[in-house]
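**Protein fold record**
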Amino acid sequence: MKGVPHRCRLFSPGFRAAVLSLAIAGAAVDAAGTWRREPDMPTPRSAHAVVATAEAIYALAGTGSDGKPVLDVERFDGTRWSRVASLPGEGINAPAAAAIGNDIYLIGGFGTTTNQPLAGVHRFNVRTRTWRDEAPLPAPRGGHAAVVHGGLIHVIGGGNSVSTIDDHSVFDPRSRRWTGKARLPRAMGSPAAVSLGSRIVSIGGRSGASDFGDVYFYDPGADAWTAGPSIEPRGTAGAVVLKGAVYLFGGEAQAAKRVLDSVLRLDPGAAAWAADTPMPTARNFARAVFFKDAIYIVGGSTSYGSSHASRGAGTVERFKEP
């Protein structure tokens, strides 16, 4: 693939098999990142939300190792985990979360006791460790993605009590109001999303038993989506931007009936994704955040096919590029 350097390195047979399968699917092999195990979360969880502030990583909501709701809000300062608060109300599955300054916004999701989509938005201040209700979503949804771009929170995709949706809603923390923007090119739940320069990127997703490999770029100035380089279909993957490249971690491939350990990277200006060093622990709901000088994959599920009732894991792994 033009524009993407290749490095020669010796790997185990298992690693070679993993990256070979990606190469066959059209992704160039260019593994460079290294992995390190970090302290596990006190409470294993999946279908959860994870965000990072300047000082810590926060894990919220989801289901635990017993499949029951997790109400504890847990904080990781780079060395150890601690419990700092409890969720308001009942437990929540598959919400989205976004951090702006000292505030974390927990957005929508499915009620763990009712399995009904929620419109509620709760703001958690990491200094006072208190909750405040914000303006609710325009309509209930869960399994969506949220990304901060230009000081605004963009919420895309997800599902309601009937089907997956293509909704794109934007929240302005200053006016505390929601507005509608250009809809996704297709309805989908469980996409990954990142802010990349002047654009937002939506990656993968699913609807029912179908996974998608679509990648779309959103231009806020034009209020329009355009297609980007596709990937192998998957949902519930995690994504982070590092040094101008988009990294995609894990997820679940329903057609193959398996949880993924693959790491894909889209370099600046590249026409296709490259395969980077796989995760040590394959998982769906692979929540990924950038914290200090590395990417952290926090929790998720190692089992296939459990959807929002999946049993959570406490595994935390750190990924660094040289």
